[in-house]
Amino acid sequence: MVIKFDNVTYKENIMTPLEKTYIKNLSLIINENKITSFIGDSESGIYKLGDLINASSYVTSGKIKVLNYINDGRTIKKVNILRMNVGLVKLNKDEMLFNKTVKDELEFGIKYFKYKTEKKSVRVPDALKLVGLTSDYLEKNIKDLTLSEIRKVSLASVLIFNPSIIIIEEPTYGLQNKDREDLKKLLTMLKTKYNKTIILLTKDTDFIYGLTDEVFIMNKGSIVSHGGKELLENEDLINTYNLKAPEIIRFINYANKKNANLTYTSNILDLIKEVYRNAF
Amino acid sequence: MNFNYLDYVETTDLSFGVKEKMWITFLGDKNKDIVDNLLFKKENNFITINYSKITNKNKDKLRKLIGYVSFSMLDIFLGERISDELAYNLESLGTNKKEMKEKVEEIANSYKIKNIDKSPTELNLSEKIKLSFARILISNPKVLVIDDIIKLLDKSDLKIVLKNLKNYTEKGGIILNFTTEIEETVLGDEIIITDKEKIILSGKTISVLNEEKLMKRLGYNLPFIVLLNKYLKDYELIENYILDYERLVDAIW
User: Quick check: A147 contacting B, CB < 8 Å?
Assistant: First the structure.
């Protein structure tokens, strides 16, 4: 167990007419060294979870235990170390990047947090290499980058601290297919080889189907369902909460209504072989 | 009779023309540059409308006919309430009060935006995206430039927006959808793929998606239903492409 939510409620603009509750009495445990996905629509509150876990936001009531830190509304001592250890990649690039060049951005955190690292000159290009960018991106201006490059640089700016927990909002937004496959490989490697804990906050069920170990479905600030990837195979459940099931699942479900008897898989080639066998 | 409504020609092998009622999906690394040029962010001689050039002097002509929806504009609101936000475009065109009120109610209805008296800052991400479509399309621009935003809509809001976009093109609108999500290509009539400063592939959606090998080399998969159809056809389980799961399943079993 690396992250524990204990009856957490999170509200913004309290005591004003704009008060809104984003997370309601949430209790859960996120396990170490796993890829855990939270899925839900825009009203579900999933986009607030990242801020709560890395203490960018404080809980209104309840308690979150992350590594050795406790977020219960009071100030956290040495919160910068918590934030370096829990890397959060936000969806909105304006909340992630604000320096002029890529090099400045990647080095910023190291300078600001006085992060002690042996070889800054190796860490920075290594972080870029992990996300699939070459060293010549260092000199580029951030305003000249395409959306997919910006999302990769955002991820690199978090990996540079070697965090033990990595949280990504909408990991596939802005990425082409090949980049998504590379990201899948990267996340799996970070989990298995480097023992990281990965948390994905997304609507993209296609991406997480072959990747995630655990799934939490969120709706209006609460968990409505929790399980493994078989949750994504339950199309009725997914549709109830304003989400779309993975395309491959949709096809399999239509086929099984006609007694095709296909087994659930995330691999299209296995699916085709089975269709070929069953159709004759 | 062929005429090009909007023509875009850049000096580095990047030229295309668009006609009314077209929906084109753009993929590739030149997307950002093309969008910047369409929004006339810097001086260029790249665009013609009905064969007359757009220059720095008459660039307002271009700006009036292009509507733009993107993530970066989501939180920029010009009105205190949603109804003001929707009315803004009409107000700047000098529409009279009665007509504005009618149009605002009409568009709030067709986009299922419920409480138009509350502040737009209270909306969630998907509702904000819906609002940014509504506030642009209320004044019916000739061209709509969508900058990688459709993917972030909730399922219910996506249905509503797509229905309205379909309406928009049927009445003569042109949609240029710049995206990284391959599944969105099936929404459009044509695809233009750029790679390293050139247009590598362009044409009708199905014909471009047929070039599987080239697409793969450029780093694109096919949309799932198209890939599925391709394999099923290769294995001789279906004769022609069927881009609807229910009918596809009926054809096999």
Answer: yes
